[in-house]
Amino acid sequence: MTAPVVLLLSGPNLDLLGEREPDVYGSATLDDHVAAATDEAARRGLAVEHLQSNHEGTLVEAVHGARGRAAAIVVNAGAFTHYAWALHDALAAFDGPVVELHLSNPGRREAWRRQSVIAPVATGVIAGFGGDGYRLAIEAVARLLGAECGPDPSR
Ligand code: DQA
Questions:
Q1: Reported confidence tier of residue 147, pLDDT bands at 50, 70, 90
Q2: Which of 33, 88, 102, 134 is catalytic?
Q3: Could you give the CA distance from residue 46 to residue 149 in angstroms, rounded to a whole number?
Q4: pTM confidence score
Q5: Where are the domains of the chain?
Q6: Homologous superfamily in CATH for domain 5-145
Q7: Whose CA is nearest to atom 10 of ligand 1?
Q8: Residue 50 designated active-site
């Protein structure tokens, strides 16, 4: 049986993690976070597909491509979180669970970060736990998908 796919989406500037504002986002790179998510997923019988883009349309098209194919989406939309309504609409057309993810806690930062256009179409939000959020997001997805994904006995 093939493992259900979790589409992990990373928005703008997340490709700079490790160099970008390390006091806010930590020193780990995006590759480190994707590896953590991938390991956690494998332990739970899930497969991660990752895409990072600095372009809203590319992320919208990735969500379209996930329809009927991926079991769930985990999305750290970066600053698109706060204004990208096209991404909101694309996620609204996706049937499975959607977990909104942030390294920082936008709720305790600048006022403009307190609005999320992703939140209204997210099953839940994980924010403020730094890199641990990637593992937690996969755990949340596994719980939401429930019995569909058993453990991988090789791990
Ligand atoms: C972020 C929070 C956003 O406000 C910001 O624009 C980002 C990263 C986070 O992971 O904490 O780029 O999504």
A1: very low
A2: 102
A3: 7
A4: 0.94
A5: 5-145
A6: Dehydroquinase, class II (3.40.50.9100)
A7: 102
A8: no
